[in-house]
């Protein structure tokens, strides 16, 4: 796993360089979910594929930007599912974006997820890695290398509320619950980038990030293999909770297809338990 994490560090430096120096315009193509691709989405995807091609333990890769599974090394062990540039619609306004990696063995589902990692491209580059059963580790890129800052542990209760999705399309249950957190004193923190929004909650000790099922998207927007499962592992390992709208751990998810989505809620224990009561699950 160390080899894969070290290669993710190399990927992070290359993508950060592309963000800072490349054309921010749209490409001529759209991704498998029908979203227009930026040239940077395509470039970041190529960077990851090229770097992981040099890692013999990587059997296959699955990208949020591509259809299907690409086999890299028949004798490899792991399949790396990744979102090369999550929140890329925020690059043109210079907000933070990220890359997310789920590392799977044997099966592409919650049971098969053995490790995950994400990179935040903000004022600095940060990396968080998580291995099943171990506390997530936080790194910051300083002086030409990734320096370990420490383990990440969520508090029992936080102060931040990051509610995703179009409010007009929320159910009344969800709207009432979000309002109840604000009435309790929670503060809104939502940039529209899943990686920096979840990173902020993790590092500030807790709170809730939600992307519910909505009337227009009953299964939510966020993709299980590339976004939901990798962050579920980080949150659970940090002592928090990560559940779907039925109150089940997101780590029990079994995607029906590669780009399958799920309603998802990530947070410290207090807020997730409150959400379960509000949803009656
Ligand atoms: P984006 O479409 O900009 O790539 O992955 C999808 C994502 O961003 C997440 O990063 C983000 O949390 C979410 O969509 C934002 O969606 P809403 O605007 O619907 O809240």
Helical proportion, percent range: 25-40%
DSSP strand count: 15
| Small ligands present | 2,6-di-O-phosphono-beta-D-fructofuranose
Q: N-to-C SSE series?
A: HEEHEEEEEEEEEHEHEHEEH
Let me know the average pLDDT: 96
% residues in beta strands: 25-35%
Structure description:
With 281 residues, the protein is an alpha+beta fold. It is built from 6 helices and 15 strands. The protein has helices at 2-21, 39-52, 172-183, 194-203, 224-237, 269-279; strands at 26-30, 36-38, 58-63, 70-71, 78-86, 97-105, 113-121, 125-131, 137-142, 145-151, 160-163, 187-188, 207-211, 241-243, 264-267. The strands form 3 sheets. Strands 4-3-5-6-7-8-9-10 form an 8-stranded mixed β-sheet, with helices on both faces. Helix 1 (2-21) runs antiparallel to helix 2. The chain is globular. The N and C termini lie far apart (36 Å). The model has no long low-confidence stretch (mean pLDDT 96). It binds 2,6-di-O-phosphono-beta-D-fructofuranose (FDP). 2,6-di-O-phosphono-beta-D-fructofuranose (FDP) binds next to loops.
Which features would summarize this protein structure in a list?
281 residues, alpha+beta, eight-stranded mixed beta sheet, five-stranded mixed beta sheet, binds 2,6-di-O-phosphono-beta-D-fructofuranose
